[in-house]
Amino acid sequence: MTICTDERNCTNDVKTAIDCFMNGLIKRNPGELEFHQAVQEVTESLMPFIWNNRHYKDSQILERMTEPDRIIIFRVSWEDDQGNIRANRAWRVQFNNSIGPYKGGMRFHPTVTLSVLKFLGFEQVFKNSLTGLPMGGAKGGSNFNPKGKSDREIMRFCQSLMIELHRHIGEDTDVPAGDIGVGGREISYMFGQYKRLENRFVGTLTGKGLAFGGSLIRTEATGYGAAYFMENMLNHTGDSITGKTVAVSGSGNVALYCIKKVTDLGGKVITASDSSGFIHDPEGITAEKLVWLRELKEVKRGRIHEYAKQFKSAEFYEAKRPWDVKVDLAFPCATQNELNGEDAKQLVANGVIGIAEGANMPSTLKAIRIFLHAKVRFGPAKAANAGGVAVSGLEQSQNAMRIAWSADEVETRLIDIMKNIHTQCLRYGECDDGQLDYVKGANIAGFVKVADAMMAYGIV
Ligand code: NDP
């Protein structure tokens, strides 16, 4: 039997068109499982819309949007503290710059592959569009493992990486930021090297230190934004975070500030995790405990099990994830595919009413289907975690104007942006039965702006 790989020839129905399109995409991108997963999720909600709006179909917009503008692959050679010469691979996937310069984080983690960066870059296109700011989508990173490296090793690696990357980025071309394994320290080393190589002080990276062009609230923005998105989803049906019991996974940048804002909004966060396991603190991670946890993670770079030694109310569960704990709301904030179908079933059985994805693609396709079927309010990553890149966009604006806004000013803008993203999801997310599908809403709203720009440019 011949497998249909060309959606253009498919005249049957939308379901078959999705299969044909995905067969073609898988054939063109063999073995890139994360990329396939991200495109499948988007295609399932977009294809019916595209079939009803034939100009997008006739212009092959989805085919063009799933092919990155360009991919840069390069070697990063560096020397460790023992004098050994090391070589890593790095990438920058410049996915789509139809509505603004490329924008997206850099990830340093041993699991980084081209597939992971293509999924992240593809998602970034839709997410950046949803923010309403003029930003295209990109992602980059390296299979370098920062864990256990000294500051000097990190510095040498970042400097070496920038020797190649600086040719491909710029304040009006491509503006990288942080992601897993890339925080303030790494951005500072990369920005310092960029400035030196270019002999220009411009906002080509975001997430910079406050003394050299960084924006207040950027560090907090992704986690805060996820909490605000959840508040918007609950407010829409007359509910709120106040009084809710909450599970958060991860204990990195996104998780820590998600815990902070959920707590500020009256929720009780009872879990946090890292790749070694999770802690359950039924009394809640209070503001005081969070100060201690931030010191552990951000300064001492310690492990989550130390929380349970410090606070007797908590228990540590090795090599486990927090989704068995009974909660009202859940925020997966660690990494991709950290919440599968079984986890989703358990959360639903325990009565969860809302999920907001702080991490990128933390829920598998099966998990998403279970949440949607159970009518759980489900805020997908491209909407719920867009606060980070939105404040990166605000950092770019402040750099271009050579001014710095106050924390209140930036947070007020962040609140407005998250509210606006929620409104856009409502516009396109309503289903025939009156239910709200935020996945569909975010995918279509993010798509329309980019697609219309591409249509205006002609065949590019
Ligand atoms: P960090 O590196 O600061 O933290 C990542 C956290 O996730 C750590 O607690 C880490 O534990 C845990 N983690 C990483 N890999 C795994 C794994 N395989 N299994 C279990 N836990 C894991 O990254 P961020 O907080 O910045 O990013 C987290 C997620 O949010 C990512 O998906 C990222 O793409 C997304 N995101 C981040 C934004 C930002 O502004 N930073 C913006 C938008 C999305 P350990 O320390 O043990 O590795």
What does this structure look like?
The chain is α/β, with parallel strands linked by helices. The chain folds into three domains: 1-67 and 437-460, Orthogonal Bundle (Glutamate Dehydrogenase, Chain A, domain 3); 70-212, Leucine Dehydrogenase, chain A, domain 1 (Rossmann fold, 3-Layer(aba) Sandwich); 221-379, NAD(P)-binding Rossmann-like Domain (Rossmann fold, 3-Layer(aba) Sandwich). The chain has 17 helices and twelve strands. Strands 9-8-7-6-10-11-12 form a seven-stranded mixed beta sheet, with helices on both faces. Strands 1-2-4-3-5 form a five-stranded mixed beta sheet, sandwiched between helices. Helix 9 (253-264) links the parallel strand 6 and strand 7 (268-274). Helix 8 packs across helix 15 (387-401), helix 8 crosses helix 16 and helix 9 runs antiparallel to helix 10. The protein is globular. The chain starts with 13 loop residues before the first helix and ends with a helix. The chain binds NADPH dihydro-nicotinamide-adenine-dinucleotide phosphate.
